[in-house]
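Revision sheet: structure tokens.
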Amino acid sequence: MSCRRDRGSLVIVLDPYETTFRSHSEQQTLRLAERLAAVLVPGDVLALEGELGTGKTVFVRGIARGLGILGPLRSPSFVVVSHLKGRLELFHVDAYRLSEPEELLQLGFEGILEADGIVAVEWADRVASVLPARRLQIRIVHLDPGRQIQIKDLGLNLSQRPGVEALENPGD
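Predicted:
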């Protein structure tokens, strides 16, 4: 484990597959997500977890901005899936209102996974049994002040992708 401070943001590197960031503002969270979007490739799945109000939708908004998707992004709670087009397609899934994982499959989730875009699933813990094993697990936790954002690479080999070094300093 290594630890370093970059311009006010503490970055803790646990191992090549898991990194934890401390965000002090919504803007820092957006910048981190934008930088992550730059290294995403078609087929990547982001599984976002965290309590209500921790910033999951803010993080997905940053992913959307990083993919060149303009305009407002809202939590798709009442429609479950939003489909947005940018440099890559983004499928924004909100599993909050689903009572069981199979409901996501009934909504055509397998087809979404095959659509060659990026899939970001909020409340992923509610549908974990139907998510692909290869994904980025993103856990956001309230801190006082700010947020802790843990990104765990479950088989996507993010650390081997060009441009991933931009994630090392999200606070600038």
